[in-house]
Every structure is written in C-alpha cells, then in structure tokens.
DNA sequence: GGGGGTGGTAACCGTTTGGTACCTACTTGT
DNA sequence: ACAAGTAGGTACCAAACGGTTACCACCCCC
C-alpha cells in the first residue's frame, strides 16, 4: 500500500468528463439510435431489444438531466413522447464515428473481409 | 405500423463490436493511460487512483485476451511486468480523440453562448 | 533471516445495475 | 363495455461489478 487509496480526484480530465455522462451498458446504445433522428419511447424500446421499460425510463431521465436528450410530449392520438438529441447530445457524434473506425480497424487487423461487404 | 422501422440486429454492428471490448468503469481509463506508452503494473495502479489490484489484474487479463494489450515480463531486479497497447489496442486512438472533442464541445456549450436556435 | 518492493491470487462482501411482474392513466377501435 | 396500445411508475429480485482483506512468491539488501 504505497499511496492513499483516493488522494486526488481528477481535475478537469476529458476522459472523466466523458465517462461521467456515458456509463453503463445502455446509454451508448440509446444515443446511437437517437442519432438517426427523434425517436419515440416505444421505438427505442424496440430498437434496444432486451431493455426493460424501467431501465429505459431511468436512462432517458438521466440523459435529460445531463442535457443530452430532450423529451417532448406530442398531443397525438394515443399519446406519444418523442426523444431527441439536444445540441449537447450531438456533441457525441465524433465518438460514434470513432467507434465505427475502431471496429472497422479491428476487423481489418483480423484479416477478415474489408468490412464493406458481408 | 406502430414502429416505422425495426431494423434487424446487425451481427457485425460497430457499436456492439466496440461495446464488447470496452465495458465497465475501468477499461477506458486503463487504455487511456496506456496510450502514452508502455506502463508497469504498479504505475497503472497509481495512475488509476482507487483501483484494486484484483480489478486491475482481471481487466488487464481481459484486455490481453481481447488482444488490445500485451504483457511482458522483464528480467529486472525486483521483477517488472510491462503492459502496452498492441496494434489492435492502438485502434482505440480515434476514440480517445473523439472523447476529447466531446468534452471540449460540452465545455464550449456550457460556458459560451446559449445559442439555442435552429 | 527480516524488511521492503514487485506482481499478483483467493475468499468474502457491498454497491450498482438491470430484469420481472404488476400497476396506473389515457385513447382508440369494436 | 371492453380489449389493446400508448408511456410510464413501483416493488421486489438477481447478477454483474468492484472493493477489502488477507496472503503468496520472488528478488534484493542489510
């Protein structure tokens, strides 16, 4: 035990800044599906196959609190609620692109097909 | 009718590909510190303030199994083990850059003009 | 042979995260 | 009237994740 367990909290680290917002298994996936445009609650639930309504609700609430996602109730026939990326949420776009480049690069290094076909 | 699109789960989805490798609270941080060059076990433990040796070991094992990190035992006086990014691990670099851009962009939106127009 | 530093391993436990099941409230269609 | 679809909320659990505490093996130095 050389150093005290928790002596210095991170000052202004971009990594911590990022990880504070994007944690857990579902948040990246939610943002992923929202980048294609506004999406309704039920749509997201079907997009993210396997997510429970409880978790989807809580994650959307968190993202709304963090200002990455906006919630809009539509005055439509059964009642629709539309979720969309805010301007802050759109800041996530470079990360999506990077994740795509990452997985393409890994596929490339695996020596498999050039990721364009399949 | 209810859902305009329920696109099938792409078996080679870049997002899932990415998330398979980078999950949990510590893995991104470990990769972050390794990108500056090879690092010894104890160095990483000090870099990642608060991580336990158990978790650090298990994460490094996983990263090694995924081929993102290499492990090398040095024949030095006390005994050193050096971890480094492999070529596959270097594919993560765009993600780092994107995370940095993300946090800068958020800071920009926080501190600057509230230009909420569209 | 004791102390200190390295790099772990194993057992146990607590917190966090997510899942299941059941519920409300409203609206539309039959 | 009643079923079905919309968007949730709540209570209760299960599993994953991570932390704590020990302890080991090795090496060097004194």
What does this structure look like?
The structure is a homodimer of 118-residue chains. Chain A is globular and about 50 Å long. Chain A has a single domain, classed as Winged helix-like DNA-binding domain superfamily/Winged helix DNA-binding domain (Arc Repressor Mutant, subunit A, Orthogonal Bundle), CATH 1.10.10. Chain A has six helices and three strands, in the order ααβααββαα. The longest helix of chain A has 17 residues, at 93-109. Chain A is mainly α and 118 residues long. The first copy, chain A, has a three-stranded antiparallel beta sheet with strand order 1-3-2. Chain A binds chain B through residues 2-3, 5-8, 14-15, 17-19, 21, 23, 25, 28-29, 32, 42-43, 46-47, 49, 87-88, 91-92, 94-107, 109, 115, 118, and chain B through 2-7, 9, 12, 14-15, 17-19, 21, 23, 25, 28-29, 32, 42, 46, 49-50, 87-88, 91-92, 94-107, 109, 116. Chain A binds a DNA duplex (30 and 30 nucleotides) through residues 2, 5, 24-26, 40-42, 50-58, 73, 76-81.
